[in-house]
Amino acid sequence: MLIDTTLREGAQLFGAYFSGPAKEAIVDGLLALGVDELEIGWVGQDGLGDFIRTIRPRCGRTHLSVWTPCRERDIRAASALGVNRVNIGVPVSELHMAERLDADRDTLKERLASTVLTARLMGISYISVGLEDVSRADLAFSLEAARLAADMGASRIRLADSLGILTPLDMANLVSIFRAELPKTDLAVHCHDDFGMATANAATALASGADYADASVLGIGERSGIAATEELAAHITLRKEAEHAYRTEAIRNLCDTVSQAAGIPIPRTKAVAGKDIFACESGIHAHALTKSPALFEPYDPNRVGACRTVAVGGKSGRAAIADALDQTGLARQDHDIPTLLRAVREHAHRLRRPLTPGEFARLARSAGKDMPC
């Protein structure tokens, strides 16, 4: 279901250079998560063959694939790498065909047919054809290219929204059209995030009939990246109606590994991976969490290796102060809660942050001493 391409698309992030140990650590984290396929790199990448030989023994049933242009010589090179899947990229928009390939439609179809046939003759068991820039391409021609690839022996067609211009409604429609046209061929999507739609588009594609979705950890990749592995894995696994389970408990460790390797800080409110996504200061929400975390949490923090943090501060109310006294082991009746609330709010505004448990306890003891008899 998930094709992780952190070590292919993600490695194309501007300024990102993964060391050998970092790549191995990323692979180990992805295997622990249980992704279905690792797109491990691209044909012609330095040291790719040695890296594949290093990691293959630990990959078990997880498929390994490499990306290759639509060229016969690159297919031959891919066949020597020891992977069981190749992902052939073929541009289908008029702009790409004219400006990038200097080819017309007939020339492209000839090249596509010969490349897929070569892959079959080289003994590659699973051939994936990615229709690049399909979101700006002529639909009829894109379908024609997809049918040709399937007729020549392609196992999967991958639809690439290369500039991230589709909305979830657009994606649902596109997937439905290709699904109806190719009912026996695996269908995948590759969604870029230029307008912040990538993860939503990938999730929608899977719900609309796609078999696979590309993703990378933290969504890293060209420009603003692609769908995020951690977000899709959590969404697929942690909803109550989910049928497919990934092992999400260690996903934040994987995100930390990629963050360090790529030099990309994780925003503290980043979905799934951010350190503060289960932190609460707002009075109404904080009090509700003491009654039932499910009121304001979509899933148990432990499911993604996180912890819940509830603190008092400038946004707190009386109920949150009373709850904080209980948690600190201080008796409510020994404190004038409105007075303590004012003190907490003033202190938090001076600090420009919520209070730590120790700071609250010291403030509460001080306020308690000052209470009138």
Question: What would you say about this model in short?
Answer:
This protein is α/β, with parallel strands linked by helices. The protein is built from 14 helices and ten strands.
What topology emerges from the helices and strands here?
Elements: E1 2-4, H1 20-33, E2 37-42, H2 48-55, E3 63-69, H3 72-79, E4 85-91, H4 94-101, H5 105-121, E5 126-132, H6 139-152, E6 156-161, H7 168-181, E7 186-191, H8 198-207, E8 212-215, H9 229-238, H10 251-262, E9 279-280, H11 283-291, E10 309-310, H12 318-328, H13 337-351, H14 357-369
Parallel strand pairs: 1-2, 1-8, 2-3, 3-4, 4-5, 5-6, 6-7, 7-8, 9-10
Helix pairs in contact: 1-10, 3-5, 5-6, 7-8, 11-12, 13-14
Molecular structure report:
The chain is α/β, with parallel strands linked by helices and 373 residues long. It has 2 domains: 2-262, TIM Barrel (Alpha-Beta Barrel), CATH 3.20.20; 279-369, no CATH class. The protein is 44% helix and 13% strand. The protein contains 14 helices and 10 strands. It has helices at 20-33, 48-55, 72-79, 94-101, 105-121, 139-152, 168-181, 198-207, 229-238, 251-262, 283-291, 318-328, 337-351, 357-369, and strands at residues 2-4, 37-42, 63-69, 85-91, 126-132, 156-161, 186-191, 212-215, 279-280, 309-310. Strands 1-2-3-4-5-6-7-8 form an 8-stranded parallel beta barrel, surrounded by 7 helices. The protein has a two-stranded parallel ribbon with strand order 9-10. The longest helix is centred in the N-terminal third of the chain and has 17 residues, at 105-121. The mean pLDDT is 93.
